[in-house]
Design a protein that fits this description.
Length: 329
Amino acid sequence: MLQQTQMERGIVYFNRWLERFPVVVDVALAAEDEILRYWEGLGYYARARNLHKAAKVIVEDYNCKVPSEYATLLELPGIGPYTAAAIASIAGNEDVVVVDANVNRVFARVFNIDQPVKTTEVQKKIRAVATALLPPGKARIFNQALMDFGGLLCSPKAPLCHICPVREFCRSYALGLVSVRPVLQKAQENIQIKRVAGIILQNGRIFMQQRKRSAVWGGLWEFPGGEIVVEDDENSQLDVALEIKKDTGLAVIAEQFAVEVKHQYTHHKIVLHCYFCRLQEHKADTPQLRSAEKYSWLSPGEADRLACPSGVRKVMEYLKQHRPELFSG
Ligand code: SF4
């Protein structure tokens, strides 16, 4: 929950999650749509789906008890070396090292590593040194201490070198290179994306489609549409019918501009232009979905209860505020 999410916000999600799913069996028995709804806004939806799958495995194969052995944890969906090491060492006190951003920073500074820390080669070296330093039987304390040391003392912007207990071993301190360690990889540039989408209304119902599991925002629901390349905003009304045709096979008429919403997603800045659309009367074909695996005609209230990407959620909020009559039926 905390990846790319601030602690304060993460806590709200965590508490809400625990209230609804207090034990692992509650997660296992829930429908995937509900899991995604509780995760909505956190991004990285594959994690939510994997958490759901892992809960099922834990209930079926491990009698509802989360395993604490590193090798067993690695077999659960969504659990990689970092999470497995964190659970195995902190919950099970198994002798495995946890290397997170804090630990990377401490090692990069103490050993004055002059290459980007995220490279496989450097990661291997840090892991090997940390493993050699780990006192057997004390992984729980060692890992927690290293992470806290990086978080509280050897912090990214203002490390407290003047009170640091390992200052005399710290090579980057001795060389005056603390501020340039760790070496970071060049930040990716923001990519601007313009999308159009249609709110297709038919007898008080809205057409919604569920994205393919393998795609970004997999399993989430959205309005159909697509990416466009034009610079001129006025042209987007012409594009929406075309994009909906490509995306769903449905022939629609874009009748009226609804709303523009902006949304940031990792390195993508997305501007979404939404239009109210209606089906061309003589062409009520069965949709041929391209980016989605499922569709449904839903009342706006039903659509609002589904898990959606943040941009679509903003459109829903707009509809509730500006077209409340749609929700009153
Ligand atoms: S001396 Fe400064 S840079 Fe080196 S480990 Fe201590 S806090 Fe970090």
